[in-house]
Amino acid sequence: MVRLGIVGIGNMGSAHAGWMPQIKNVELRAICDIDESKMDRYPDVPHYKDSAVMIRSGQIDAVLVATPHYGHTTIGIDALQNGLHLLVEKPVSVHKADCQRLIQAYDQAGKGRVFGAMFNQRTDPHYQAIRRVVQSGELGEIQRTNWIITDWFRTETYYSSGGWRATWAGEGGGVLLNQCPHNLDLFQWICGMPSRVRAFCGFGKYHNIEVEDEVTAFLEYPNGATGVFVTTTGEAPGTNRLEIVGDRGKIVYENGQVVFTRTESSVTEVKNTSQESFATVPTWRCEIPVNGYGGQHQAILQNFIDAIESGKPLLAPAVEGINSVELANAMILSSLIGETVDLPLDAAAYEAKLKSLIANSTHAKQTVTVESVDMGASFGR
Ligand SMILES: NC(=O)c1ccc[n+]([C@@H]2O[C@H](COP(=O)([O-])OP(=O)(O)OC[C@H]3O[C@@H](n4cnc5c(N)ncnc54)[C@H](O)[C@@H]3O)[C@@H](O)[C@H]2O)c1
């Protein structure tokens, strides 16, 4: 039986707490929030106001961190350094240098520790099916990727709902750091990492915020393939359309359906060998049957517990979370400097840029909760 503690009992932390009865081999033994009123709903579980005290209580084996973003790094490092298993909400950290610090703490903690990330969309069978088609080689070498993920509509009320939201100091970014970690993680999980990024962000384009709420990014992959990633929280109804083109056809996910339009032969071969000027490449339309959207958060929770209990492989190892953070950072940086950014990203340079954004911010909110607790440790390490 794994004894779990949750840090951050807000929207997501309380949802995780509510799912506990459905998760096998886990017992919720502690909860922690700097706002004690958030814990009133759980009179039977010991309360902690300070995560450091909970982590050292001897009452828990594992921690789930569901605080605002900067706390993922600082509280996560504290948990790992004190021998606990760690499940961290997305994004794994705000910026690449913090991810590296967190991963270093995991490496030093020893391989007996389990370090997972709440990338619940990895449990969605649609994305799993697309990944299988790409990874099996059935799609052929990737030529072009395109993800329009604009169904993340959010209101001004949403952005006002927490002092930490939508500021550089509190959240560390906008749509790329809050909504899109899922998509950026899936994008790299399915297609791999690009080697160059040029992006155009709208900062506070649709909302009274300082961070990005619209992004159009152009990606270049190591094999010469190109990609486009488009997102926003400012339009409705929005679109979720993922299209990946390879040498053996194209796979499209939209409206809950995955369609693989498969070519009879290699497109490159037809291009190079056909005697016709206007040849077509015959195709089959294959609808990939998929039911439901997977176990989502509960499945990731169970997988984390199973990894601790019986060594089951993690579906979403947190060390892989650095990739989505790096993509988000690169898109923001590219837009700010007006240039293409090469990957791997210079982590220190991005951290310095973020620091200057925080220093020059005119959007500081009165109720920012993480600054004194997290920012010093996060940037000072
Ligand atoms: N996986 C998902 O589908 C999903 C969905 C929503 C949010 N999230 C993530 O969950 C995290 C929390 O988001 P939320 O919407 O629940 O935010 P929230 O503001 O509702 O909750 C955050 C809670 O953390 C508490 N807190 C802040 N600093 C703390 C500290 N140092 N120690 C203890 N508690 C602290 C706050 O008092 C608050 O109760 C974010 O990382 C967010 O990106 C994930």
Question: Overview of this structure, please?
Answer:
This protein is α/β, with parallel strands linked by helices. Helix content is 34%, strand content 23%. The protein is built from 12 helices and 15 strands. The strands form 2 sheets. Strands 14-13-12-11-7-10-9-8-15 form a 9-stranded mixed sheet. β1, α1 and β2 form a beta-alpha-beta unit. α3 crosses α12. The radius of gyration is 22 Å and the shape is globular. The C terminus is likely disordered. The site of nicotinamide-adenine-dinucleotide (NAD) has 27 residues, from α1.
Give the gist of this structure.
The protein is an alpha/beta fold.
Structural class: alpha/beta
Categorize the overall geometry. globular
Rg over CA atoms, rounded to whole Å, is: 22 Å
Low-confidence stretches: 366-381
Across the major sheet, the strand order is: 14-13-12-11-7-10-9-8-15
Query: Biggest sheet, in brief?
Result: 9 strands, mixed
Please tally the β strands and state the result.
15
Heterogens:
nicotinamide-adenine-dinucleotide
Q: How large is the count of helical segments? A: 12
Amino-to-carboxy terminus distance: 34 Å
- Element order, helices and strands? EHEEHEHEHEHEHHEEEEEEHEHHEHH
Tell me the strand percentage band: 15-25%
Which percent range fits the helix content? 25-40%
Mean pLDDT: 94
As an assembly, this protein is single chain
Which properties best describe this structure?
single chain; 381 residues; alpha/beta; nine-stranded mixed beta sheet; six-stranded parallel beta sheet; 12 helices; 34% helix; globular; disordered C terminus; binds nicotinamide-adenine-dinucleotide
